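Model: Ready when you are.
Researcher: Fold this.
Model:
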Amino acid sequence: MRPAPAAGSWTTDDIGDLHGTTVVLTGVTGGLGTEVAFQLAHHGAKIVAAGRDLATVEDALSALRHGVRDAQALAVRLDLADLDSVAAAATEIAERAGRIDVLINNAGIMAAPFRTSAQGFELQMATNHLGHFALTAHLWPTLTTSRARVVSVSSLMHSFARKLDLRSLEPGAALARYDRWGAYAQSKLANLLFMRELDRRVRAAGIDVTSLGAHPGYALTQLSRSGLQLGGRSLQGAVVHQVSRAVAQSASAGAWPIERAATDPTLEGGAYVGPSGFRQLRGRPKPVGMTALARDPELAAELWDASETAAGVRFTIG
C-alpha cells in the first residue's frame, strides 16, 4: 500500500488509474456530483449516474462524454424520496453495472420547506438519509461481492444537530414546529451515524467493504439555492446563494474530499474526509473529526433499526 499523502497535500493527481472500476454516484446533475463524475471518469472509472429526472441525467452524461475522451457512463432513474423507485433503481444498477467498486451516496436537498416523501416521511430525512440507506441495502449483495467502498456525503451542518428525532422516520408523524435548517442538520447527522454503523457492522462480520464519509466544506453549488426555493422562489435562498458565491470555495474544490474518500486506499473504514483549512471550510482534503453525537454508537444502532422499519428492508450484514 502506498503511503498516505501528508496532511493537506492531496491532489487529484493522487487518484491513480481507475480503469476497470465502476462507480455508482447519486446526484450527478450539478455541483459536487458533476465534478466527482468528471474527475473519476477522467481517471478511467465507469460512471453509473442515478438521478430523479432521467433526461437531466442523460444531459449531464452527454457533457461528461464531451469533456472526457472515451468516458464510460450510463444513466439510471432514481428518486431517493420514493422507496419504490429506490428498489427499482437498485435492481437496474445491479443488472447493468455488473459490479460496483464504489458507491457514492451524494445526492441531497438542503433546507427545504416542510414536505413529505412518497411514503409520507419528512422529505429531507427521506431524501438525504433513508433513500441512500435503502439503496445501499438493496445493492448490498453486489457491494460485498465487489469488495466495494461506500462513501456517505455529509456536511459541516451535522454539527448543528443537537438531537436526532427518529419520528422523522415515521410516516405521517406529528413533528414539532418545523425548522428546515434543523431538519437538514439532522439528516446530515444521520449520514454520519449510518456511515459509522455500517463500518462497525462490516468490521464485526469480517466483510471486506469499506465505509467512509466526506464533506465538501463551504462549497459553491446549486444546493444552497435549490433546496430553499423548493416549492417557489425564495429571497432567503437567493441571499444564501449570493453570499456563497462571495466566500465559498469552488465546487471542484468541494469535491476533493469525496474524491479522496472514494479512491484513497490508505484511508481506513470509518474515516471522515473534509477540507484541511480553517474550521474545515476550505482547503485540501484530509481526515477530520465529527461531533460526539455523530460518534454515538447507541444512537447509530437506533437509527439503523428505525431505518430498516421505515424502508421496509432487512439490511443484514454478513
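Researcher: Now this one.
Model:
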Amino acid sequence: MMQNAKTISRRNIVISGAIAGFAGAIGLPSLQKRALAEYSSDMTDELSILNNALYYEHQAIWAYSFAAGKLSDSEVGKAVLAIALANQADHKQHRDALAAAVKSLGGMPVSPESSYDVSSYLDKGEGGLDSDVNIAKLALALETDAAIAYTMEIAKLKTPALITAGASIGSTESAHAASIRAAFVSLGVKIKPVPAAFVSAENRDAWVLKV
C-alpha cells in the first residue's frame, strides 16, 4: 500500500488472492510429486501457478502489515487491527504451504519483495490509508477480488486435489470479506455482511465500499 512503491496492476492483485493459500486447505505439502502425477503427467503449469500465488501471497502479508502501521489506537482502529491480524494469519499459513508445495515439486519458491503498491484501488476510491475506516474498505476490496479471482484461476489447474483446495480457499476469502463487512455493521453502518448470493465480477460493486 506504499504510495512510492512498485506499481502493481489490478489484475496482478486479483491473482494474488486468487490462488493465495489453497495449499494449506488440504495440507498440500504432504502431497508428494508422485501422488500429484497420478492426476497430471505434466506439473509445469501447476508449479507456475503455485509460485505465482506465492509471490502475491507475500504481497498480501505485506499489505496487512503496512496497513496495521497506519491504524490509530482508537476502538475502531483496534477492531480493524484484530480483523487484519486474523486474516493475515491465514495468509501466512497459505504462504508456508505454498512454499513447501513448490519445493516438493522441485521448484524454487519466490522470495518476498520489500514493498508493493495498491494505488489502483486508492485511485478508484475503494479504500484509503488516511483513516481506520478507509483502511478497512481497502482490505475489503482486496479480499473481494481475491474471492472473485479463485473462480478464474482454479479452472487453469489440472490436479483434482488442487482444484478442490482452490474452491475451499475461495470460500475463505469470501469469509474474510464478509468479516470486514460485519465489522462495519457493528459500527452502525446499515449494510449486509453478505450482500449477494455470489461473489463475482458481475456483482463486485455490491461487496466493496467506496470512500
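Researcher: Key takeaway?
Model: Residues 1-27, 29-35 have pLDDT under 50 and may be disordered.
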